[in-house]
Amino acid sequence: MTLDPQTTYVQLADDGTATQLAAAGFWTMPEAAGDGWLVTEFAFAEDWPNWEMHPNGDEFVYLLAGAVDFLLEQDGAVRVLTLRGSGAVVVPRGAWHTAKVKAPSRMLFVTRGAGTEQRPD
After folding, report:
1. Which of 4, 33, 77, 119 is most buried (CB neighbours < 10 A)?
2. SS3 85
3. Which superkingdom, per the lineage (predicted)?
C-alpha cells in the first residue's frame, strides 16, 4: 500500500509495528502522538509560525528540497544551521527549534511526538 506522507503520518512503535495516522487535526489531539517514533513530511513556503520542543527524544529533520535556516536554541543562545538543497539536522531532546524558509521547502521529520510543546515565534 502506498501513502502520501503529507496527509498520512506513520508511527513506528517500539515493538516494530508501523501504524498509519491521518494528518488532518493530528496536532490538536496531543494523545494521538503516542509513545513511538512519528514520521511526518511537510511542505513550507513561509517561516514556521512558532518554536517547538520534543521532551521525549531527539528529532531527525531531513530537508528533502528547498532552503531553510534552522534555528536551534541551546544554552540560552540561538544557533543558525543553514540547509540548502538537501541536508539533515539532529535536534537534541528538549531543544527549542524553528525554521526560517528561504525557498519553498519539503522536510521529513522523525521524532517521538508525545509531549511536543510549542511557543510563539
Report:
1. 33
2. coil
3. Bacteria
Q: Which residues contact 95 (CB under 8 A, 6 or more apart)?
A: 53, 72, 73, 74
75 part of a folded domain:
yes
Q: CA-CA distance, 103 to 69, in Å (whole number)?
A: 10
- Domain extent, residue 36, equals 8-120
Q: What is the pLDDT of residues 72-95, one digit of tens each?
A: 999 999 999 999 999 999 999 999
Three-class secondary structure of residue 109 per DSSP: strand
Distance between CA atoms of 1 and 120, rounded to whole angstroms? 38
Closest residue by Cα to residue 111 from 44, 51, 48, 33: 33
CB environment 21-57: b (16+ within 10 A), e (fewer): beeeebeeeeebbeebbbbbbeebeeebeebbbbeeb
For residue 65, which phi and psi values (nearest 5 degrees)?
Answer: -165, 150
CA-based nearest residue to 62, from 41, 36, 37: 41
To the question of pTM greater than 0.85 for the whole model, the response is yes
